């Protein structure tokens, strides 16, 4: 039964994306701000499908910490849901996406409107491109969302934070708002299986600008990881590593 529900949900997910995307495209051509109208509409459809097809609820906490206007957001990444749901609590989310996604039907056309493409082929070149794109997006009032681990992780995987977010933090000189989540409980990083349950996105207090790089990365990882682990049931939390022998 879970497999059947998962297949129906996947059909719903991509069908709703196509319907929303094609219906709102004429409005996007007139005003690119309607990209966010479409993202919110698809986000609502996705959360509806999770609730009524899969039996999974999605909650949002810490909304008092959501920044207004241009900002940097750093979020835990466990499932595709993390790329859809932020449009439901951020007014103008701007995603950093793999350049090859710009060629996908419907989604690609939207991404190329006002999101940040990155070619992962060359690290230094890609990082400069991300920082430059983030600078422009924040100046226009966008909330640039980046996943510091780079890719989706299992709920019990050890943290693997990349320094790209530190370069953006230093260059833009603005706070970074961390977001914890536990979406991997209902939506695995890979595969089509979805599970009933209840997942939460939790917006945390912003880290102020101006910290040294090492202190910033340590603070970012500690906040996101401790809160993301706290959102998991005890049996799903990462096991503590034994202390090394003297």
Describe this structure in words.
This protein has 246 residues and is α/β, with parallel strands linked by helices. The protein is 43% helix and 15% strand. The protein has seven helices and seven strands. The termini are far apart. The mean pLDDT is 92.
| Net shape | globular
**Rg to the nearest angstrom?**
18 Å
What profile does the largest beta sheet have?
A: 7 strands, mixed
In terms of quaternary structure, the protein is single chain
Helix/strand-derived category reads alpha/beta
Trace the largest sheet across and list its strands.
1-7-6-2-5-3-4
Low-confidence stretches: none
**Termini separation (Å)?**
52 Å
Number of DSSP-assigned strands:
7
Helix content: 40-55%
Mean pLDDT, as a whole number? 92
Give the number of helices: 7
DSSP strand content? 15-25%
User: Order of SSEs, N→C?
Assistant: HHEEHEHEHEHEEH
Q: TL;DR?
A:
By secondary structure, the chain is of the alpha/beta class. The protein is 43% helix and 15% strand.
Give the topology, please:
Elements: H1 2-30, H2 34-54, E1 56-61, E2 71-75, H3 81-84, E3 93-98, H4 107-114, E4 116-118, H5 123-139, E5 143-146, H6 164-172, E6 176-181, E7 197-203, H7 213-230
Parallel strand pairs: 1-7, 2-5, 2-6, 3-4, 3-5
Antiparallel strand pairs: 6-7
């Amino acid at each position: 039964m879970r497999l059947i529900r998962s297949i129906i949900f996947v059909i719903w997910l991509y069908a709703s994306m196509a319907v929303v995307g094609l219906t709102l495209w004429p409005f996007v051509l007139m005003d690119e701000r309607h990209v966010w109208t479409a993202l919110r509409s698809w986000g609502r459809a996705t959360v509806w499908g999770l609730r009524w097809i899969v039996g999974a609820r999605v909650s949002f906490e810490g909304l008092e910490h959501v920044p207004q206007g241009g900002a940097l957001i750093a979020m835990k990444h466990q499932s595709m849901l993390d790329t859809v749901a932020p449009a439901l609590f951020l007014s103008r989310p701007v995603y950093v996406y793999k350049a090859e996604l710009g060629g996908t039907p419907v989604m690609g056309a939207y991404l190329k409107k006002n999101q940040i493409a990155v070619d992962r082929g060359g690290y230094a070149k890609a990082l400069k491109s991300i920082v430059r794109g983030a600078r422009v997006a924040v100046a226009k009032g966008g909330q640039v969302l980046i996943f510091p681990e780079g890719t989706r992780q299992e709920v019990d995987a050890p943290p693997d934070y990349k320094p790209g977010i530190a370069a953006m933090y230093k260059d833009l000189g603005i706070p970074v708002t961390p977001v914890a989540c536990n979406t991997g409980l209902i939506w695995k990083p890979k595969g089509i299986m979805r599970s009933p349950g209840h997942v939460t996105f939790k917006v945390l207090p912003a880290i102020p600008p101006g910290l040294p790089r090492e202190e910033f990365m340590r603070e970012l990882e500690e906040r996101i990881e401790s809160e993301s682990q706290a959102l998991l049931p005890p049996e799903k939390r990462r096991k503590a590593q034994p202390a090394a022998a003297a």
